[in-house]
Design goal:
Distance between the termini: 145 Å
Oligomer: single chain
Shape: rod-shaped
Structural class: alpha+beta
Strand content: 15-25%
CATH architecture of the domain at 99-210: 2-Layer Sandwich
Order of helices and strands: HHHHEEHEEE
Radius of gyration: 51 Å
Number of helices: 5
Helix content: 55-70%
CATH class of the domain at 99-210: Alpha Beta
Number of strands: 5
Largest sheet: 5 strands, antiparallel
């Protein structure tokens, strides 16, 4: 009679199943570690990429700062030049609106084909109210010349000579219309013979106040 030990076979089978279970467990642990390492590597890769981007931006800012610093002297010189130019323009504008402006206005008044600086609306109103107060655009300013121009405390005295009294009146009308002069007063004139030209002329004086 043959006896078979089934108990030993059962134990071996259980042992084999236990070993397989452990093997599966170890494989799962290893797989989990691989997944974790993969995820961690990916996360660190993103961190590295972000850090590299930040480094590039920082390097660009550093390069820009270095360039700005290197051009500081040149930029400062340009700014100084611009400031000097602005100051010169301001001085010229101030001069044009000051005593120099008054002389320029007198030159315009005495330039053939030109006339006084006057607001167009005011000129139109004067033309309607009193046409006789308008200046003559065809007047030949060479018929009159200035021999003296004195200004103090915004008061001027103009002396000169003209071919006749109408030329003096034309100058007075133009000064009255000008935005630079006001309270124009024509002083008594006199006839005389000019020593140089030997012409019969009118010697005149005009007083006025100036605006600037």
């Amino acid at each position: 009679m043959i006896r078979i030990n089934l108990l030993a076979q059962r134990k071996r089978s259980e042992a084999a199943e236990t070993s397989q279970a452990w093997l599966v467990a170890v494989m799962l642990v290893v797989l989990a570690e691989v997944v974790i390492l993969f995820v961690y590597h990916g996360f660190k890769g993103e961190e590295l990429t972000d850090q590299l981007r930040k480094n590039r931006e920082l390097n660009a800012q550093i390069d820009q700062s270095k360039k700005a610093v290197s051009n500081h002297t040149e930029v400062k010189q340009k700014l100084d030049t611009l400031r000097a130019r602005e100051e010169a323009i301001h001085r010229l504008q101030t001069a044009r609106s000051g005593p120099t402006g008054v002389l320029l206005e007198l030159a315009r008044v005495l330039t053939p084909g030109r006339g006084p600086s006057v607001d167009p609306d005011r000129l139109a109103q004067l033309r309607r109210d009193n046409p006789l107060s308008m200046f003559n655009p065809g007047w030949d300013a060479r018929r009159l010349w200035i021999t003296s121009f004195v200004e103090a405390q915004r008061r001027v005295k103009i002396e000169g000579k003209a071919r006749d009294a109408e030329d003096v009146s034309e100058l007075a009308r133009r000064l009255n219309l000008s935005s630079f002069f006001h309270d124009v007063r024509l002083l008594p004139a006199k006839r005389e013979v000019d020593a140089k030209s030997k012409l019969d002329v009118v010697s005149f004086s005009i007083e006025a106040k100036v605006r600037y």
